[in-house]
Amino acid sequence: MITLCGHSLCCAKNTSTHPPLRELYSQYHSLPMRVESEEKGINIHNEYSLHNLIKHLYSLPGDRFEVKLDGFIIDVVRDDTIIEIQTRSFSSIKEKLKKLAQTHEVRLIHPIITKKWVVYLDKETGKRSGKRKSPKTGKPIDLFKELIRIPVLVKHPNFSIILYMVQAEETRIRGVKEGWRGRGYKIQDRKIIGVDKVISLNHPGDYLRFLPDELEEPFTNKRLAEAADILPREAGWITYCLKKMGAIKEVGKEGRSLIFRRTG
Question: Is the dihedral of CA 128, 130, 134, 140 positive or negative?
């Protein structure tokens, strides 16, 4: 179940499928902004719409936003639960998550863009050019590229992750560079136009869902890559994280390749 601002969002162990959010997104922009920062100097309007809409979708009455706690600014505080929405690398928040999990329940919400459409704006006129679909696609196992920063934290009873598999529209301004290696455009905004799935990951065993059903045990990174139709380095991210969190274990070697088996 997924509803807008002020209602519950339930994530079963199995992947939940949701209808497009075009109507919800329209409602979101027509509502008064309910997210109010408790910490002066924090400008929530600088956040991409993607980040802000997830905050609204997940919020409940009584939630506090942009709260200073234990030396950190927290996205959402709900009683003794800390909710962080991270759309980018986990490396920038890993120490924050580790410290907060010692004394609070920490819930990390991470969106992965499954499909993206790009719209360009003219720098001078603001006129929109035609929308095109990006060839890049995201998948749930992309989580492991970031999870390699905090695999051991998954074992902590106070820590959990919720994945939002979303479709998004990215607006770019032509003729404006971001950084010295810019590509001739600046990203103005990213907004959600649909939610495909919401995946709740509460325990190390939940991450075994990312191993293909047809993968026979014991297995190597090579066999995992073949079964999942992914790159060998992606298979390496998965087995590294699963091993660190205790969901799989090494049981030998096959030549130079490690052999793994589920611990459960």
Answer: positive
Same domain, 194 and 231: no
Max alpha carbon distance in the chain (Å)? 63
Going by C-alpha positions, the residue among 66, 72, 61 that lies closest to residue 38 is: 66
Residue pLDDT, tens place only, 120-141: 888 777 778 778 899 999 999 9
The distance from CA 34 to its chain's CA centroid, rounded to whole angstroms, is 23
Q: Please, are residues 39 and 13 in contact by the beta-carbon 8 Å criterion?
A: no
Distance from the Cα of residue 223 to its chain's centroid: 27
Residue that wins the pLDDT comparison between 39 and 156 = 156
CB 110 within 8 A of CB 160: no
- Residue 9 placed within a domain: no
- Give tens-digit pLDDT for 59-78: 889 999 999 999 999 999 99
Is 250 inside any structural domain? yes
Q: Do 76 and 191 reside in the same domain of the chain?
A: yes
